[in-house]
Amino acid sequence: MTTEASGALDFSDLSAIFINCTLKLSPERSHTQGLIDISEAIMAKHGVKTEVIRAVDHDIAPGVWPDMREHGFAVDAWPDILEKVLAADILVISTPIWLGDKSSVCTRVIERLYAASSQLNAAGQCAYYGRAGGCLVTGNEDGIKHCAMNILYSLQHLGYVIPPQADAGWIGEAGPGPSYLDPGSGGPENDFTNRNTTFMTWNLMHLDNRWSGGERSTGQVCTNAVSGS
Q1: For all residues of the chain together, what is the average pLDDT?
Q2: Going by CATH, does the domain composed of 13-227 fall within 3.90.180.10?
Q3: Which of 8, 37, 155, 179 could form a disulfide with 160 if both were Cys (CB 3.0 to 4.6 A apart)?
Q4: Rounded CA gap, 48 and 61, in Å?
């Protein structure tokens, strides 16, 4: 990280991947994307290279192997997505809430992330080691904290570093009602949601700037950890 003459922080050495786990195919409007846009704009303003992947647009096979084409599936888009995930410093999993839980697409993404947890980098560390993770959640009833607990636990279990306030979300009133981007929802104007989204975004950038590069010369070495040495 460098500081520009204007005093603005420059994180142009960082990159981030947002995975949108909406159930809606492009180009249908995704309320989850509306919240992603806020975080992505903050990152882009400060030089972070960002990309959003809408998982449902890709033929991601179910399973817990890195490439399910080697296990009977004719098509699996996950290996190409995983390559982008491993190249990024920051990963933000974003999901709607259905029946009080993360979407089925989000569950599949996390299962496929888990498939690479045994892979090592050149330093013998777990593949995800040294990267920062966060999550964004949208819905119109309840479940933000429940979804965040599950997603952030999963990410740290895989090796991601989770900063403070690594989640943000918006929910409407209980029962049927407007979703985040619907007229009159109040979602995009909600101070609490916007504050927490800003906190999450800055904490991810600041934390990963301290760890920038993914591979670390010291710290966790999975080959030693497995043997107990």
Answers
A1: 89
A2: no
A3: 155
A4: 30
